[in-house]
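Dear all,

This email documents one entry for the complex benchmark we are building for the journal club exercise. For each entry we list the sequence lines for every component of the assembly. Then comes the predicted three-dimensional structure of the complex as a token string, followed by one or two observations. Please use this as the template for your own entries, and keep the labels exactly as they appear.
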Amino acid sequence: MASLGETPSQTVGPFFSIGISGPDENVLAHGDLPGERIRVEGRVLDGEGAPIGDALVEVWQANSLGRYRHPDDSRDEISLDEGFTGFGRAATIFETGEYWIDTVKPGPVPDPEGEMQAPHLCLIVQARGLLNPLFTRLYFPDETEANNHDLVLRMVALERRSTLVASQEDGDPGVYRFDIRLSGEGETVFFDV
Amino acid sequence: MSDPAVRPLAPKAHDDHPPFLYRDYKSTVLRSPQKELVRIVQTLSETTGPGPAWSEVSSEDADLTTNAGTGGMAIGPRIIVTGSVLDQNGEPVPGMLVEIWQANAAGRYAHWRDSESSAPLDPNFLGMGQTVTDGQGVYRFTTVKPGPYPWGNHPNAWRPSHIHFSLMGPALGSRLVTQMYFEGDPMLGLDPIFNAVPAHSRERMIAAYDHHVTEENWATGHSWDIVIRGRLATPTDPEVG
């Protein structure tokens, strides 16, 4: 097998928004898309807890029935939704480090052992000062049972799992809060995928 | 229910990439994870990714010298940048979106945060473009050569001329954002972002001047292939058997 060396990763730098985050790319759900509409919002924070105003949060997810729009997800018996790619991206607001994403709650997708994973969003975080992308997942606080059985979540030390579970405020259904701490106290779990 | 195939990626070659923490590049200090990345099993969530779907819905816009839509042409040395997108198994990656952004020829980005720059804006240059690789995995942009520009990392710090490249890849883990540099640039060795990459793989970020790509009376040519993570070869792959 030929093996070529990977092109090395470099930071997105402070000016990525002219190239890779168009307006409205943080809105995945349009029109009468089936599924439970949700908003994910949060801040990206550095090692001193300061907001990062030049981060990019990218999301990859299955549709509400749990199917990815991708050639490798061959489960034709689960329908795809027209106009829903499952991808979106949000640049954080410069002053506050806040991002938000409007989408639908993903359905469960199988793990390689044939069990269902808990519903989750895959997130990629990039920023000035980050020389490589960071991969993480967002899980839902109202899926405790599924979360407890999730293959990936179980690979994470118990005391750090809470960094991967969004929070929800009373009286605000459909809105999930997910802060991403790149470094230091309460550091979000990032994956080697 | 049918069982979708999970075709895992080969393990990421971390040694070919920069570390998270590289103190000469000051912004890494507070933005680098302090804990080890958690190695996880690759599920359908990781072996799929946005590349194919996102490439389908994106439009092509590969001539940065005119895509400001003003009717005028960007100022600066006109260049063609072209090459193949391959995976590490040497397979071309067709149909994949390639997005780029860059400073103008004077070394200024058309971004509000670059407003302190003393360099001029070019009203005919946005500094962004995108294209989709063809059936052989080839991309091609026409643009102007970006100027070097000063930044605040250390005294008299300058970024060498570079173009930012973003590729989704066929799977989540093949996401790549990188920077393309120009052959023979004496500023490369002074740049902590370039130097953060291990010495053995730095040259993979440098485009070569290519006279076969150069077009007479029009633009100089620069060739640069991009290699992204590929799938793990399995014993059932005909190549292996």
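Observations: Chain B has a mean pLDDT of 94. Residues 10 and 196 of chain B are 23 Å apart (CA to CA).
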